[in-house]
Each structure stands twice: as structure tokens, then as C-alpha cells.
Design goal:
Elements (H helix, E strand, L loop, with lengths): L1 H4 L2 H4 L11 H6 L3 H12 L3 H4 L8 E4 L6 H9 L2 E6 L2 H13 L6 E5 L2 H4 L7 E4 L24 H8 L6 E5 L5 H5 L7 E8 L2 E9 L4
The structure holds 7-methyl-guanosine-5'-triphosphate (MGP) and S-adenosyl-L-homocysteine.
Keywords: Methyltransferase, Transferase
Family: Belongs to the methyltransferase superfamily. Trimethylguanosine synthase family.
Protein name: Trimethylguanosine synthase
């Protein structure tokens, strides 16, 4: 826990203003600079189509919102956010943390299973940061996307594509690029390596119009 505590201001720059995190939250939360980058990139989705007019008018589903690291940044950069989590405690913490950042009113929080909810949702973009099985994700040289603990990477992406082909996945840094691209082989994709202070933290893969 000490390792994560030492990074608390990388996770939330407003950590001292009342941020709440539980055990799973500590090792899963997306560092703020990475979350901000992803949100900015998504907010520019329709920029090329009509200059400033549509800038940021994007609805994003954060399928696994955890304690809200990504959802808060989506709310700062996009018009509407649907934030889902199966864990009531973490969903409540995400609400609290969004209030610390003054964006709680821009996020629709839903307690539930993304897999079940997906067919009933409409949005421009779906962001997937599923559980990776804890810090042990590093115990193998190559992370197998079929070994995600709840559903496979393929199952999550196929489910997300019921909503939109504009899908972003936030995944372990030891994933193989070819496995990431194979999650939606017919779609264009970009793979980003997300670093903080030079240290590789994770990879993000952008599909569809986001690539
Ligand atoms: P890490 O490797 O556990 O930490 O996770 P860190 O600080 O890089 O330590 P190091 O000593 O291994 O270098 C790196 C980042 O991956 C975290 O900050 C989270 O953003 C993300 N992350 C880690 N896990 C275990 C998960 C997870 O289960 N789900 C999601 N969505 N993100 C995770
Ligand atoms: N991006 C988040 C961290 C996500 S951690 C942040 O920055 O804070 C992954 C989350 O997925 C956990 O909170 C877990 O409760 C949630 N989860 C697991 N299975 C789920 C499911 N089927 N539907 C929705 N959420 C789920």
C-alpha cells in the first residue's frame, strides 16, 4: 500500500481535499495525467468534422468507473458521462471524488454490471478499464487478454461495440500489441504507451474514429 500512498497526488492532485479510495481502488485508479490525456483525446472526436462547434459534445460510458479517476476527467472534457460499477462502495467513492472536483452533476452514476447494461446504453465512446486481477498481472512476461478475471478482453470489447465502435481499452503494459489490435481486427486502432515521469504504467488502445 505504501507504494500507492507515495503516488497519491499522481492519482488525484486534490487528494487532500477529501478523496476516498479503497484497496482495489488504490491499485486500479488511473493516474490523473493519463486520465486527463485520454479525456482530451476523446473530447476531440468530432473536432475534424466541424471545428469548434462539436468540441467536447461527447457522451462517454466509463464501463468500470472504480473510484472515478477516469470519470472525473471525462466530465471535465466531455458533455456527459455514464459511470458504471458493480461495487456500491466504490461507486459511492467515485461520487464523492467527483464532488471534490466539482463535476458530480455531469456524471450519471449507475450501479450494475456493464455486461448486462450495455445493450440498453447509447453513447459516442465506450471506455473500458476492467479489473486485471490485481498487481499480480505482472507475474507473467506477456499478459493474456483471455485471462482477465471477469470476462475476456474480447467479450468486453464485443459488448462495448453494441454501443459504439469508438472504444478505448486501458490495459496492462505487458500486453502484446498484436493481441490488442486483434480485439477488433476490422477497425482502425492506435496503441499508446502511457508513462508517468518516464515510467510505463499501462497501455491504451483506441478503436474506430478515435484512431
Ligand atoms: P501497478 O503496476 O500496480 O503500479 O499499476 P505501479 O505504480 O506502476 O508500480 P510498479 O512498481 O509495478 O511500477 C500501474 C497502473 O496500472 C496503475 O496506476 C493503474 O492505473 C493500472 N492498474 C493496475 N491494476 C492492477 C489495474 C486493474 O486491475 N485494473 C485497472 N483498470 N487498472 C489497473
Ligand atoms: N478506471 C478506474 C478503475 C477501474 S478498476 C479509476 O480510474 O478509478 C475496475 C472496476 O471494475 C472495479 O471498481 C470493479 O468493481 C469494476 N467491475 C468489475 N466487474 C464489473 C462489471 N461487470 N461491470 C461494471 N464494473 C465492474
Amino acid at each position: 500500500l505504501r507504494k500507492y500512498w507515495n503516488q497519491r497526488f499522481d492519482y488525484f492532485s486534490r487528494f487532500d481535499e477529501g478523496i476516498q479510495i479503497d484497496n482495489e481502488g488504490w491499485y486500479s485508479v488511473t493516474p490523473e495525467a493519463i486520465a486527463e490525456h485520454t479525456a482530451r483525446r476523446i473530447s476531440q472526436l468530432y473536432n475534424s468534422r466541424s471545428q469548434d462547434e462539436d468540441f467536447g459534445r461527447i457522451c462517454v460510458v466509463d464501463a468500470f468507473c472504480g473510484v472515478g479517476g477516469n470519470a472525473i476527467k471525462f466530465a471535465e472534457w466531455c458533455e456527459h458521462v455514464i459511470a458504471i460499477d458493480v461495487d456500491p462502495g466504490r461507486l459511492q467513492m467515485a461520487k464523492n471524488n467527483a464532488a471534490v472536483y466539482g463535476v458530480a452533476d455531469r456524471i450519471e452514476f449507475i450501479l450494475g454490471d456493464f455486461y448486462e447494461l450495455a445493450p440498453s446504453l447509447k453513447a459516442d465512446v465506450v471506455f473500458l478499464s476492467p479489473p486485471w486481477g490485481g498487481p499480480e498481472y505482472q507475474s507473467t512476461k506477456v499478459f493474456d487478454l483471455d485471462a482477465l478475471p471477469v470476462k475476456t478482453g474480447q467479450q468486453w470489447v464485443d459488448r462495448a461495440r453494441l454501443i459504439s465502435d469508438n472504444v478505448v481499452c486501458f490495459l496492462p503494459r505487458n500486453c502484446r500489441p498484436e493481441d490488442l489490435a486483434a480485439l477488433a481486427p476490422a477497425l482502425p486502432c492506435d496503441i499508446e504507451m502511457n508513462r508517468i515521469n518516464g515510467f510505463l504504467k499501462a497501455v491504451s488502445v483506441y478503436f474506430g474514429q478515435l484512431a
